[in-house]
């Protein structure tokens, strides 16, 4: 689970209008600033990507954008989408276009991923879901795309029992939550924050009942509408809204 640290980050104030792909905005909560990008799967084509046609990880938003351009598409929004090993393979469960590349890990373990309960971000036609791992195993939803991470920040409206209100660890962190209508709410902090603040942001500010931590060693966002492109170390799974090049 070793990942290189963040090399650089370009933060440009959000000034665009929600006319393209994810609708992103800045929100201040409890003295901390967050960028929130809402994706409606009834409207947006949200997918997960890991490897190119040669089987090598894309690693960077720009590499994936070039691959999309070759298909007549363009990247409308992107964020890192779960923890990964040094070779950028997923730490946990991963499905892409209905094909399972890695099975579910349901046991406790070291690090954030193994701090149970963890969960699975699942994409189906018209909606997304964040599902606690053991519930996911019981129900086995037909996910077209899925990525597992942890811990769950919020489960059924309750903050993870081992997350304190505002602990001492401060890092740039990102996560995804899903509301009752199946819309995905991607969040990245604009400055280092605690787990507790991020969990409370989902629960109290966004009023999202299920939210999943994605990462903090590398947390990156690309939102071309607002000309924000975070750069850093190579990453593993990437969640993307793609658009036709003509749109």
Low-confidence stretches: 1-19
Terminal CA distance reads 38 Å
Strand order, largest beta sheet: 2-3-14-13-15-11-12
Radius of gyration: 16 Å
Detailed description of the structure:
The chain has three helices and 18 strands. It is 11% helix and 37% strand. The strands form three sheets. Strands 2-3-14-13-15-11-12 form a seven-stranded antiparallel β-sheet, covered by helices on one side. Strands 1-17-16-5-18-4 form a six-stranded antiparallel β-sheet, with helices on one face.
Note the main attributes of this structure.
single chain; 247 residues; mainly beta; 37% strand; disordered N terminus
List the helices and strands and how they pair.
Elements: E1 8-9, E2 23-29, E3 32-39, E4 45-49, H1 61-69, E5 73-80, E6 94-96, E7 99-102, E8 119-124, E9 127-132, H2 133-139, E10 145-149, E11 152-155, E12 158-159, E13 174-178, E14 184-189, H3 195-206, E15 210-215, E16 221-223, E17 228-231, E18 238-244
Short description:
The chain has 247 residues and is mainly beta. It is 11% helix and 37% strand.
